[in-house]
């Protein structure tokens, strides 16, 4: 990478990523969001909507979202919901949910001289509260139906504005690719039994659209269903190089690991 073009630092993803995502449906399915996460090189096929499902308009985005996120989410096509009383729909509450990326970074002498940063290894965390998503669950059959989790990437923020600007302009290119979108299509390793209020751990698989790259991801999920609310956390690991860019490596200033974590902590309420 060109140090002149990049005053500083690492990259996501969420996003979750991320988002998003990034993402809670997965968790919902588990209890039975939408952030996963494993990594696949092949692009999953897109399935056509079933003829019996009805398209319903999205509920207006909550005011807790930033103006840019609200506008981006409003441009998404409505989610196609499955009909029938067995399906329960849960929507992510952005006021109580976050998406973040975590990456290992090491700073050298020039980081102190140029930016006043302390030399050594550290974990960088970038966070945003700009999430949107919903998921349908059949709690009797423990199946996940229609779902989508989206994370607005331009508002990811760390403790360094230079790092955040580098991420937006050079890594995620979030002006071009503002959203990370996850759709879950398979649940893995579900427990044999479940009681309401009990935390369940499982994995969720689905395509993640991030920076114009569609990848099959597998997420580790832990979630709890209590009444009409699902609370959970999900995470996956990705590589910057698999997303089409190299990790930052600026001579005498810093290096960043290729692999990073996307984590989504979410609360979703039944509609």
What does this structure look like?
- The strands form 2 sheets. Strands 3-6-7-8-10-11-12-15 form an 8-stranded antiparallel beta barrel.
- It has one domain (25-270): Lipid/polyisoprenoid-binding, YceI-like (Lipocalin), CATH 2.40.128.110.
- It has 271 residues and is mainly β.
- The chain has helices spanning 25-31, 67-74, 109-115, 161-171; strands spanning 54-55, 80-81, 87-92, 98-107, 120-128, 131-138, 143-152, 179-182, 186-188, 200-210, 213-226, 229-239, 249-250, 254-256, 259-270.
- It is elongated and about 60 Å long.
- Mean pLDDT is 80; it is low at 1-63.
- The termini are far apart.
Question: Helices, strands, pairings?
Answer:
Blueprint: H1 25-31, E1 54-55, H2 67-74, E2 80-81, E3 87-92, E4 98-107, H3 109-115, E5 120-128, E6 131-138, E7 143-152, H4 161-171, E8 179-182, E9 186-188, E10 200-210, E11 213-226, E12 229-239, E13 249-250, E14 254-256, E15 259-270
Antiparallel strand pairs: 1-2, 3-6, 3-15, 4-5, 4-14, 4-15, 6-7, 7-8, 8-10, 9-10, 10-11, 11-12, 12-15, 13-14
């Amino acid at each position: 990478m060109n140090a002149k073009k990049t005053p500083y630092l690492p990259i996501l993803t969420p996003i979750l990523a991320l988002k998003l995502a990034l993402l809670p449906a997965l968790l919902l399915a588990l209890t039975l969001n939408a952030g996963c996460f494993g990594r696949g090189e092949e692009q999953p096929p897109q399935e056509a909507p079933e003829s019996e499902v009805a398209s319903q308009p999205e509920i207006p985005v909550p005011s807790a979202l930033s103006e840019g996120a609200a506008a981006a989410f409003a441009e998404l096509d409505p989610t196609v919901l499955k009909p029938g009383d067995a399906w329960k729909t849960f929507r992510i509450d952005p006021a109580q949910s976050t998406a973040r990326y975590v990456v290992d970074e090491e700073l050298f002498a020039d980081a102190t001289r140029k930016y006043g940063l302390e030399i050594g290894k550290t974990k960088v965390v970038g966070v945003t509260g700009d999430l949107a998503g919903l998921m349908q669950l059949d709690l009797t059959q423990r199946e996940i139906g229609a779902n989508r989790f989206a994370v607005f990437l331009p508002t990811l923020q760390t403790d360094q504005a230079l790092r955040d600007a580098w991420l937006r302009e050079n890594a995620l290119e979030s002006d071009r690719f503002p959203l990370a979108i996850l759709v879950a299509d398979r649940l893995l390793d579900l427990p044999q039994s479940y009681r309401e209020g009990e935390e369940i751990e499982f994995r969720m698989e689905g395509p993640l659209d991030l920076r114009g790259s569609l990848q099959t991801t597998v997420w580790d999920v832990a979630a709890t269903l209590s009444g009409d609310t699902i609370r959970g956390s999900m995470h996956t690991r990705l590589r910057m190089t698999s997303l089409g860019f190299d990790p930052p490596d600026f001579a005498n200033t810093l290096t960043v690991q290729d692999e990073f974590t996307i984590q989504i902590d979410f609360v979703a309420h039944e509609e």
